[in-house]
Amino acid sequence: MNRVIPIAVDSPAAHPSAGNDSVPHSAAQSLPHYMRAGTLQLAALPPLSLYVHLPWCLKKCPYCDFNSHEWRTGGAIPERAYLAALRADLDAALPLIWEDLGKAGMVSGHAYGKSIRTVKTCVGAEHCRFGTQLSMTMGVKLEKMLFGMWAPHKVKLAVSGCPRNCAEAGIKDVGVIGLDSGYELYVAGNGGIKTDVAQFFCKVETDDEVMEYSGAFLQLYREEGYYLERTVHYVNRVGLDYVKTRVVEDASNRKALFERLLYALQGYEDPWLERVRDDRKRREFRLIPVEALA
Ligand code: SF4
User: Fold this and answer.
1) What value of ipTM does the predicted structure carry?
2) Is residue 128 within 6 Å of ligand 1 at its C-beta?
């Protein structure tokens, strides 16, 4: 049932100075009607709901103003049963959550896979007075181009807007450093347990060249690297000169590698949305009654 709640009435009676030019209007009176204190009107009561939360507090803190109650039945708190029910709820709801996220344009990332990771950038010429190149823009371009790329191992990239190199491009699988005249590319770095400094690969002038050379290098690694072999170990095995011969010095081979990369990436589908659209895959998230397993 819709009901108007008359919290306050905005009338000359409520503001005795209104209509009287001899009395200066207050700042509050010059505000739009809906911003004045005491004028809020709700068209309807919000729906009644009950929020039940099971915190894991050892005791109630004196400043806690939740309407909370201690477990006093004497038995142990049914943590296991609660967690099992919560997990079942989440499992069942996951595809629905993914569907909502997908509609909002939010897709699954690659936090753990043998795949491209979020491209790190400094703030670049977009925001830094030292910047010579738009590193954030370049990083976004690279990440969008490589999104969904699987590889023998994880692949990390960074783009710095100038040689001060705040994005630490010198310890990435592909590092891009902006210069006045274009970009320097570095490959086969690693910032993990054992740090390996990336090796200078080549100099290029344009954003498109950054994408082509980086993409061709990564495709060569995808085609020739062993499973679980990082770029540093791949390049150490085959030699940097060999990689340069295939990518930097052989323009037609570079373009072919780059085209194969782009072709492979066309088939990428977000794993969340795959499970939303494909009923057979969605079944992975249906609960199986325990009796059915007996
Ligand atoms: S690398 Fe250069 S452009 Fe980027 S934040 Fe550092 S000083 Fe600025």
Assistant:
1) 0.99
2) yes
